[in-house]
Design brief:
The chain has 271 residues and is α+β, with helices and mostly antiparallel strands. The chain is built from seven helices and eleven strands. Helix content is 30%, strand content 18%.
């Protein structure tokens, strides 16, 4: 039966109930641009060590009087936060600051794949130039397909649930200090991950270092799928001998046509 909103309010008051207002939502991804986008390589990678795949994302945090924005970069293998930046703006300098911090900390070898959404911050000339300068290969998700950003999305959810929503912050600097402590002292060093065998990211990386030094663990394997039958052809050895479709980085990947995503050449996606 039809019910007036005043009646609902009166009944709620009688039962001491309050309506929870939905949190304001802020769009952080602007993919409506004419900049170059790149093929999604992250979903084709089989990781064997750290600094083979980095995953980047941006989220918003609501303070009392304003929205601020956090850019993060995680290592795809260990899920460790390797770079982050907090600003009042979504301008490209936010993502650039996180990337530069990650590079300074990790000093990755050429061939690392950097995966993100298709946002203008990651497709911009300044950001792509830094990637190319350090021999990194850009990779981007398709629209509405955040699966390969799952580790980053998981970190953001954890940060908001265990830190942001549990506290009140006086200002941006107060928030920055708390995020730094959460990432550097808790998340990277102490928080256990079921995907890492219930180890922290730092502990997982320390145990992975001896294996990563072995020749067979220096590079990730990249799989492409043939159009005919869409079946994966997997190389018998990591070096790719016997099957040119499986490519270990930093070896350049071949020119091919990929159904639904166009062709790639030098890591770029053309439609």
């Amino acid at each position: 039966m039809p019910v007036n909103h005043k009646r609902v309010l009166r009944i709620m008051r009688e039962d001491n109930l309050l309506a929870v207002q939905p949190r304001a939502f802020v769009v952080t991804t602007d993919s409506d641009h004419g900049l170059e986008v790149y093929l999604n390589l992250a979903g084709r990678m089989k990781l064997t060590g750290i600094d083979q795949l980095w995953v980047a994302d941006i989220t918003y945090i609501r303070l009392k009087a304003e929205f601020v924005y956090l850019a993060v970069i995680l290592d795809g293998h260990s899920r460790k936060v390797v770079g982050w930046a907090l600003e009042r703006t979504l301008a490209s300098r936010l993502a650039v600051a996180a990337l530069e911090q990650a590079i300074a900390k990790r000093q990755p070898s050429p061939g690392l794949v950097h995966h993100s959404d298709r946002g203008v911050q990651y497709a911009g000339a300044e950001y792509v130039a830094i990637l190319k300068k350090h021999g990194m290969i850009p990779s981007m998700s398709r629209p509405a397909n955040p699966y390969n950003n799952a580790s980053c999305e998981s970190f953001i959810k954890t940060l908001k649930r265990e830190e942001i929503y549990a506290r009140r912050y006086d200002n941006l600097e107060h928030l920055r200090a708390n995020i730094e402590e959460f990432i550097e002292e808790y998340y990277n060093r102490q928080r256990l991950h079921s995907a890492l065998g219930y180890q922290s990211p730092e502990e997982f990386e320390q145990q992975s270092e001896p294996r990563s030094a072995a020749p067979d663990f220096r590079s990730a394997t990249l799989q492409f799928f043939e159009n005919d039958g869409n079946e994966a052809r997997v190389s018998k050895v990591l070096t790719g001998e016997g099957d040119s479709i499986t490519v270990p980085f930093p070896r350049p990947h071949p020119l091919l046509t990929d159904t639904g995503e166009g062709s790639i050449k030098n890591g770029k996606c053309a439609h």
